[in-house]
Amino acid sequence: MPPADSPRFPDEAAAALRARLDWDDARLLAECDVHLHRTGGPGGQHRNKVASAVRLVHRPTGFTVTAAERRGQHENRANAVMRLREAIAVGVRQVPPDPIQWPPSVQLRDRRLRVSPQNVAFWWVLALSLDCVAAAAGDIPAAAERLGVTPSSLVRFLAAHPKAWVETNRLRAAAGRPPLRAP
To answer: pTM, whole model, 2 decimals?
Structure first.
């Protein structure tokens, strides 16, 4: 996950990095240094004794993600790739398009933003939402207006994803605004 003082990328680099959200897992993994290791913790006899924890270091961004909650290396690798997509969506900002173009699999009803994490466009929607918050200097009503959703819908969507919520409040703090409280 990108740290609070994560690197900022130029617009052309941000667009290229953001395109990786559409890549398949194998192509994304090809850009990573994959480290397998053991983890400690509770579990006793049910704790896997082999190196099944996965750490990915994404070379283009420098983002590091880990997954160790499963006993199988393949499950942990899949979880780590998902976390890398999240790190890219949360940590790479770019100027939002004008007008906003939602992916075809995203339907807004009554200006409500509801997108399942299983939706293939989920990471794009999360990234676009944070882009609009950044462009509006943390002003949620202005960001929501630009997205075509209600402010409460945007807040609920961002609050449902902890890393996005932390980034939202970091963007607000950088603009001199107070942090939001979770709904």
So the answer is: 0.85
Binned at pLDDT 50, 70 and 90, residue 8 comes out as low
Phi, psi angle pair for 167, to nearest 5°: -65, -40
By CB atoms closer than 10 A (0-12, 13-18, 19+), residue 67 is buried
Q: Give tens-digit pLDDT for 112-133.
A: 988 988 898 999 999 999 999 9
Where do you find CATH 3.30.160.20 in the chain?
Answer: 11-91
CATH fold of the domain at 11-91: Double Stranded RNA Binding Domain (3.30.160)
- Sheet with 32-37, strands from edge to edge, namely 32-37, 53-58, 64-67
User: What DSSP state is assigned to residue 118?
Assistant: T
